[in-house]
Amino acid sequence: MRAFRIRSMLLLALAVMCLGVALPAGAQDKPRYGGELVFAVPSEPPTYDGHQEETFGLMHPIGPHYNTLLRVDPFDKTGTKPVGDLAESWVIAKDGLTYTFKLRRGVKFHDGGEMTSKDVKASYDKIIFPPAGVKSSRQAMYQAVEAIEAPDAYTIRFRMKWPESSFMLNLSSPWNFIYRAEVLAKDMHWYEKNINGTGPFKFAEHVKGSHWVGKKNPDYWDKGKPYLDGYRALFISSSSAQVAAVRGERAHIQFRGFTPADRDSLVQALGPKITVQESPWDCVLMVAMHHEKKPFDDKRVRRALTLALDRYEASKNLSKIAIVKDVGGIQVPGTPWATPPDELEKLAGYGRDIAKSRAEAKRLLKEAGVPEGFSFTFKNRGIPQPYEPVAIWMIDQWRQVGLNVKQEIIEASAYHPMLKRGDFEVAMDFACGFIVEPDLDLHRFVTTSDANYGRHKDKVVDELFQKQARALDAHERRNLLRALEKRLIDEEVHVFYTLQWHRIIPHSAKVKGWTVTPSHYLNNQLDTVWLSE
Amino acid sequence: MTKYLMKRFLLMFPTMLGVAMLIFFLIRIVPGDVVELRLAGDSSSVNAKVLAEERAKHGLDQPVWKQFLTWLWGAVRLDFGKSMWTGAPIYEEIKLRFALSLQVAVMATVVAVLLAIPLGVISAIKQDTWIDYAVRIFSIAGLATPSFWLGIVFILSMLIIFKWLPPMVYTPFWVNPWQNLLQLIWPALAVGYRYSAVATRMTRSAMLEVLREDYIRTARAKGLVEKLILSRHALKNAMLPVVTVVCLEFAFLLGGLVVTEQVFNLNGLGLLFVQAVAHRDYTLVQALVMIVAGFFIVVNFVMDILYAWLDPRIRFR
Questions:
Q1: Chunked in runs of 10, what are the mean pLDDT values of chain A (533 residues)?
Q2: CB–CB of A290/A456 below 8 Å?
Q3: What span, in angstroms and rounded, lies between the C-alpha atoms of A11 and A9?
Q4: Residue A491 touches chain B, beta carbons under 8 Å
Q5: Closest-CA residue of chain B to A139
Q6: Cβ–Cβ of B43/A451 closer than 8 Å?
Q7: How large is the angle between the packed helices B64-76 and B282-310, nearest 10 degrees?
Q8: Where do the DSSP E strands lie in A73-222?
Q9: Which residues of B, range 231-270, sit inside 8 Å of A by Cβ?
Q10: What DSSP element (H or E) covers A70?
Q11: Residues B98, B102, B104, CA angle at the centre, nearest 5°?
């Protein structure tokens, strides 16, 4: 009887999950007006300025106050389709050197001022050409921009030094809030402590360490939206308290993600009251190998390390206990530039025949003069999910090709400086993107990048990266990306990928109009979200 | 008495200076820095120029001794500067959290004292009876139960049995007393129980010792009512070690409830402390340590006054 009950619960959970995954939120019933969305945020914004911060702790509570020039389609599950936000239409010159955008009219800032091209120009000038003393975290993404012009009140034009295939998505960055030019002219730091956007929700309250409240903007330019009366972000750092908040219906959702165990416990406890949306996550753990330290200067050794990993088996097992799942290459599986599975299988470490791969790994190690039982230290970041389980899995896999690996956990705060100092032989590297775009994800592997922790020097990688970044033809770009991937993780094995993170969002079934994407930085404007009860 | 108190008061200053020096240099020994952490985010890296500019903004490019003197001069004027993580004034970061932590500490102390003193006294009076055994079991269970675990049990019980969870957002008592108590009573009970266990044990043993003293026997011999003997002669004298325990625990609670705060999602000083250390927010860590240390020192001072009141010998020493 008990077994039957458990089976029934699991079947029900599966059905609920499938329902949540299968139905795009936008295709659900007619939106209902009213209500306050309550969500948990595991982190808190250091300042309120999206142009300088990097944490989702800013994006989740503050994103709904702003619009951007373009945005990623809130119903696109791949999170890669740019659509207009404050831009109504646009024209891209054939040579890819000029982007002209027509802006919406009648858009008002929360202080009542009208939004014009002056505001867009001032905001992008701050992002791309920040004056001394003003921090812009993503300035490097816009190196191709030569100038920003505002020929009239409702037209904004970007002139480029060279064509850049990622530019439209770069302009869809959720961080590029449009600020008021008048305010910036008086004080470039004003937005660090204040809010004044054009977004669907107005700022109401921030109690440090506790919560953030936004109220519906009744003058929002997109008539009929937003549906909610407001939202309340609760800052909850403990993951168990976040789960308890959703379970106790004190919060509808947490937009970053939960573990598989949390998902299962919520589904079991709440049954049909919970909906689960899942997606491959634009975050990945990679393995960095120090190219200036022996024997990792030898590409045969690096190749052996990736060949030893049975990624497909790990995907099945680790996805039950950790926030990882899909086997992927240099791009998130299921997104436009991702490597098709049959091509992926041809790369080192992605073959289906693990016995053959491991035999090859052993041969390569022997050939490189690495003795059986060779010992090295693997440095890992002191964060449980998913660093710990992934590291334990890899250490076991490496043991199976005769390597004796010791794990050293470095406290999270000290980890990044350690990587930058190059104080490791082999270490866990990590990346989390805000839009799945090859330029954003792969720039770190260019020889001169600050994030090239393994310190490889490879002109071929650099050239391929630059060529794909400037290729305007999708087919050409795809081929260049495949070549770059092969060079990076197969031929030279400068670095290799473990498993793609997996984003799991179990949320109250009352929450409608929100679609999970591969990035927890996306889809936080909340203009399409509504509550069914 | 005045001399005694003055001496105690003056001792506060070198103690605070020692604490200031210790925390200032210790936090800087720990690897990692706030600028790198803030700008590195989940994964991205920023160039060295931006990092250097940001470090200069926080004065981290200055020699350590200069940083220390600048900070110390501010601290003397009760200006702890701005948080390196948020850029907000330290007092703004701390004020709400201080109010919450202080309230939990006070409530837990009230719970503990209300439980410990009657139970400890009864247990001592009824030594080796079933009442004594029951109290001993209750207090030993309290000693063996971490308050965060008890907190988790409270939360799960409320969730599973009553399908209810305490409010997750702090409402100050003067805004809405009911909401405030609904949130804080549970951590106060969880912490207060463990705290009471220590105090109960201490009260019991102190009472047992005092009840065997000659002056108690004399009081009984001259026919004094038992109630008076216990309250006026025994309890007051037995309170010295209990006061020590209660005061020290009270001071500890202000910043020491890290895990319990996480369990109940309390926006208190303990959690802020952990976040500040994780962020390497030097100014905030330093301010928090100074506040907690200052609180300890003040509580110690109050404890000295209480000692003098409880034990006249101290006053005349």
A1: 47 44 53 96 93 92 98 94 97 96 97 97 97 86 95 97 95 97 96 97 94 97 97 93 93 96 94 96 96 96 97 96 96 94 95 96 96 96 93 97 96 85 94 92 92 94 96 94 97 97 97 96 96 92
A2: no
A3: 5
A4: no
A5: B46
A6: yes
A7: 50
A8: 82-84, 87-92, 98-103, 145-152, 155-160, 201-207, 211-216
A9: 262-265, 267
A10: strand A70-72
A11: 120
A353 shares contact with chain B (CB less than 8 Å): no
Minimal CA separation from B193 to chain A, in Å? 22
In A90-118, which positions are buried (b, 16+ CB within 10 angstroms) versus exposed (e)? bebeeebbbbbbbbbeebebbeebebbbb
A414: closest CA of chain B, how far (Å) = 4
CB A461 within 8 A of CB A494: yes
Bridge partner residues of A533 (DSSP): none
Q: Which residue has the tokens 């308290």?
A: A241
Q: Return d(Cα A70, Cα A173) in angstroms, integer.
A: 8
Please provide the size of chain B in residues: 317
d(CA A69, CA A213): 24
A204 touches chain B (CB under 8 A): no
Q: What phi, psi does A458 have (nearest 5°)?
A: -145, 105
Name the residue type at position B124.
Answer: A
Task: Provide the pairing of β-strand A145-152 with A98-103.
Answer: unpaired
Query: Distance (Å, rounded) from C-alpha A432 to C-alpha A435?
Result: 9
Burial label, B33 (beta-carbon count in 10 A; 0-12, 13-18, 19+): buried
Q: Which amino acid is at A403?
A: L
- How many residues belong to chain A? 533
Q: Among residues A126, A154, A131, A155, which one has the least CA distance to residue A142?
A: A126
Tell me the ipTM for this assembly.
0.81
β A98-103/A155-160 pair status? antiparallel
SS3 A37: strand
Q: HSE on the CB side for A421, CA within 13 Å?
A: 10
Of B68, B18, B11, nearest to B290 by C-alpha is: B18
Read off the pTM: 0.87
The CA-atom distances, in angstroms, between A279 and each of A76, A316, A493 are 12, 16, 27
Nearest chain A alpha carbon to B39: A54
Of the candidates A395, A262, A248, A268, which has an alpha carbon nearest to the alpha carbon of residue A323?
A262
Chain segment A405-461, per-residue pLDDT in tens: 999 999 887 888 889 889 999 999 999 999 999 999 999 999 998 889 999 999 999
Separation of alpha carbons B281 and B52, rounded Å: 17
Q: Which contacts (CB < 8 Å, 24+ apart) does range B229-233 have?
A: B230/B121, B230/B125
* pLDDT, tens only, B267-293: 899 989 988 998 889 999 999 999 999
The tokens describing B295, both together, are 């609180």
What are the strands, taking DSSP E only, across A73-208? Answer: 82-84, 87-92, 98-103, 145-152, 155-160, 201-207
* Residue B294 CA from chain centroid, whole number: 11
User: Residue B172 carries which side chain, given as an amino acid letter?
Assistant: P
Residue B29 at interface with chain A, using a CB cutoff of 8 Å: no
Which residue of B lies nearest to A248 if distances are taken between CA atoms? B165
Beta strand ranges found along A452-514 (DSSP E): 495-508, 511-512
Alpha-carbon separation of residue A100 from A223, A439, B196 (angstroms):
25, 22, 71
